[in-house]
Amino acid sequence: MKKLFLPICLFFVFSISYSQNEVSVIQKDKSKFKIRFEDDFETLKIKNSKTGQIQVINNLEASITGKQSRLEVNDFNFDGFTDFASFHTDDGMGVYTIYEIFIFNPKTKQFDSLNFPSNFSPKCDMFCDVKIDKIKKTLTSSCRGGARNHTDVWKYDKNKKLILSKTQSY
């Protein structure tokens, strides 16, 4: 039993969150998707393996200086379905990572972009250096502005809407 513990733990960790240029996702409802970049990381093609339907997401936030984008698989809205993010290092000094997050919609079997709600004023104007706290069910975005560091903590309300929980600068 002890011999199986480490391989099982490693499999679990790497199946929950990892990053690369092409990923395959199996949802909890058993639907399967293959997600890959095209057009120098400016387009995503998402193929539903069961139906053959292809979702295309154009105009991704891509590096203008040629920095490679990657994919990260995770549950960004804590609903039990696997979501993903496209991310790349910022084009300035490269001090943070810019994320575009896509949330799986189990009704449409497609991925929807996670956008900032318009009724909040976060310190970071995009998702940067995203950290997920699965216990508190929060997303933390951190960025720099001049000589200051900023942190925005996002969570979902009871209606599953993204809200800004806390923001701070230091």
> What is the radius of gyration?
17 Å
Task: Provide the structure class.
Answer: mainly beta
* Anisotropy-based shape: globular
Query: Per DSSP, what share of the residues sits in E-state strands of 2 or more residues?
Result: over 45%
Low-confidence stretches: 5-19
Q: What is the terminal-to-terminal distance?
A: 48 Å
Order of helices and strands: HEEEEEEEEEEEEEE
The largest pleated sheet is described as: 6 strands, antiparallel
Q: What number is the mean pLDDT?
A: 83
**DSSP strand tally:** 14
**Helix count, DSSP H or I runs of 4 or more residues:** 1
State the share of residues found in helices, binned by percent.
under 10%
